[in-house]
């Protein structure tokens, strides 16, 4: 709710949602803001809730620069019909997971985790187990 209030106060337009759901728990309606600027809290921080910020852009290079200009890098979503452009985004985005034409499709066999300040290491898949390994190397010269 703090982020939703911040978005309104900083000048973003609340298009949908923004209210609590029910009297118990910590649930909010799916929320969408438009007219979001890069320096607004709802654009710079990781909000772990159903809050979407819509930012306008002029060209591809601007999108990549702005998307990577953050201390966070958990995940990104790209919607396109152009698979070549999607793969270019995937290669250039500084995030741990990129969903193309989908979002939040977490699969237990695949590693999940972020870049920069969005976590340490990976969860899930074989990469998620590496923190628990105790590896020992033994070299024996036989004479």
Automatic annotation (TrEMBL):
Q: Which residues form a coiled coil?
A: none
Q: Which SUPFAM superfamilies match?
A: ALDH-like
- The residues covered by the Aldehyde dehydrogenase domain are 1-138
InterPro entries hit by this protein: Ald_DH/histidinol_DH (IPR016161), Ald_DH_C (IPR016163), Ald_DH_N (IPR016162), Aldehyde_DH_dom (IPR015590)
Gene Ontology molecular function terms on file: oxidoreductase activity, acting on the aldehyde or oxo group of donors, NAD or NADP as acceptor
Q: Which Pfam families match?
A: Aldedh
Q: What is this protein called?
A: Aldehyde dehydrogenase domain-containing protein
């Amino acid at each position: 709710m703090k982020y939703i209030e911040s978005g309104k106060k900083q000048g973003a337009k609340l298009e949908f949602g923004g209210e609590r759901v029910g009297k118990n728990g910590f649930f909010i309606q799916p929320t969408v803001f438009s007219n979001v600027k890069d320096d607004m809290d709802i654009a710079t921080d990781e909000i772990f809730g159903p809050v979407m910020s819509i930012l306008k852009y002029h060209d591809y290079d601007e999108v990549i620069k702005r998307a990577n200009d953050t201390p966070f890098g958990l995940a990104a979503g790209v919607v396109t019909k152009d698979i070549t452009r999607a793969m270019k985004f995937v290669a250039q985005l500084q995030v741990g997971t990129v969903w193309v034409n989908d979002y939040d499709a977490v699969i237990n066999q695949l590693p999940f985790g972020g870049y920069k300040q969005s976590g340490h290491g990976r969860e899930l898949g074989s990469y998620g187990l590496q923190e628990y390994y105790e590896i020992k190397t033994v070299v024996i010269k036989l004479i």
